[in-house]
Amino acid sequence: MPQKESVKAMFNEISGKYDFLNHFLSFGIDRLWRKRLVKEMLQSKPGHVLDLATGTADLAVELHRQGGIRITGVDISENMMIVGREKIAKAGLSHTIELKYGDAENLEFPDESFDAAMIAFGVRNFEHLEQGISEMKRVIRKGGQVMILEFSHPASFPVKQLYGLYSRFIIPLMGSMLSSHPSAYRYLPETVAAFPSGNKFLHIMLQIGFKDCRRISLTGGIASIYIGTRPD
Predict the structure, then answer these.
(1) Residue 174: how many CB atoms within 10 A of its CB?
(2) Contact 40, 216 (CB under 8 A)
(3) Structural domains in the chain (count)
(4) Can you say how many angstroms the Cα of residue 188 is from the centroid of all Cα atoms in its chain?
(5) Which domain holds residue 146?
(6) Would 210 be classed as within a structural domain?
(7) What pTM does this model have?
(8) ∠ at Cα 153 (152, 157), nearest 5°?
(9) Is residue 187 part of a domain?
C-alpha cells in the first residue's frame, strides 16, 4: 500500500480515540503547543487561514476561539474530519470553519487563496515533504506566513534521553493498550526519528523559497514551531 493510503487508513481507524490519546500521551502539553502557534499566527492578523492535516480540527478551533478568524481545514482522513465537524458544530463555529477532503501535496486551491497556512503534527506524514511545503507556499498570498508545529529531536541532557525512552517504549506500549490500532503508535516515534527537524528543516524551507525562516523550540526541544514568510 502506498504511504499516503496507509496513513489515510491508519488515521481513519484511530479517529475515535485520537484526541484522547493525543492529550493523554503528551500529558496535555500538546494543547499548550497549539496555543503558542495560535499566538504567533495572530500577530500578523490574517483574515483567512488554511489548516492542513486538520484532523479533528483542534488547531482550527483554537485559532478561531482566540482570533475569530475564518479557517479552511483540509485532510485526507474523512473519519478524522467527522470528529472535527462534530466538535466545530458543538462549538457553534460551522459558519466560520469549513473542513474539506483533500491532499496536502496537491491542493485544489488557486494561487494566493489564503492569508496564511498552518499545520500541526502533519508534515512528517507527507509522502513528498518538499512538494507539500511548496503547496503551502503557493496557496498563501505574498507576504503571508506558514507555521508548522512538529515534533523535534531534543539535544540536551536529560530531555534527549528521557524523551527517547518515552517515545520508543512508553508511547507504543500505552498506544497498544488503549488503542485498537497499536501499529499507529509504533509509527509515531518512527516518523519523528526520520523527520529532518531543527536547522535541517529550516534549510528545506529556505530552499523552497521562504524568507525570514525561524524556529521556536518548545518544551526542551521536544517540539518546534517553524515559521516562514512568502516573499513579496
Answers:
(1) 16
(2) yes
(3) 1
(4) 13
(5) 3-151+197-229
(6) yes
(7) 0.92
(8) 130
(9) no
